[in-house]
Design a protein that fits this description.
Layout lengths: L2 E5 L2 E4 L4 E8 L8 E6 L5 E7 L6 E3 L7 E6 L4 E6 L8 E8 L13 E2 L5 E6 L1
Parallel strand pairs: 2-11
Antiparallel strand pairs: 1-3, 3-8, 4-5, 4-9, 5-6, 7-8, 9-10, 9-11
Length: 126
């Protein structure tokens, strides 16, 4: 089991930046794809970005492309989500999660992940 904990959320004005961190412990972090999802109250959790186990492969939701960048440091057991040019519609609770499987190139669906963190709130004011 990989335990994850997100941090770095906060209140920022539109156009600003935040960097989220996801610290992992236990399990086999370095062999698992890590994903970022977000959720707005009353709506389902949506995929934002993911980074493959080696860090060589990343992918993003259309809403995040060109503005967000996901990366990982396997030596520090940490995944990052750099968010630039933030918009009010980016306001949500952001979650980090670890892939259920090891050595999968990438994963996009919630059911492909387990070991979810508690989330970190991101609020973007207009």
């Amino acid at each position: 089991q990989v335990h994850v904990e997100e941090s770095g959320g906060g209140l920022v004005q539109a156009g600003g930046s935040l960097r989220l961190s996801c610290a992992a412990s236990g399990g086999t972090f370095s062999s698992r794809t890590m994903g970022w999802f977000r959720q707005v109250p009353g709506q389902g959790r949506e995929f934002v970005a993911a980074v493959g186990w080696s860090g060589d492969f990343t992918d993003y939701a259309d809403s995040a492309k060109g503005r967000f960048r996901v990366s990982r440091d396997n030596a520090k057991n940490t995944v990052y989500l750099q968010m630039d040019s933030l918009k009010p519609e980016d306001t949500a609770v952001y979650y980090c999660a670890a892939d259920r499987l090891t050595y999968r190139a990438i994963a996009y669906l919630q059911q492909e992940y387990n070991n979810w963190g508690q989330g970190t709130q991101v609020t973007v004011s207009s």
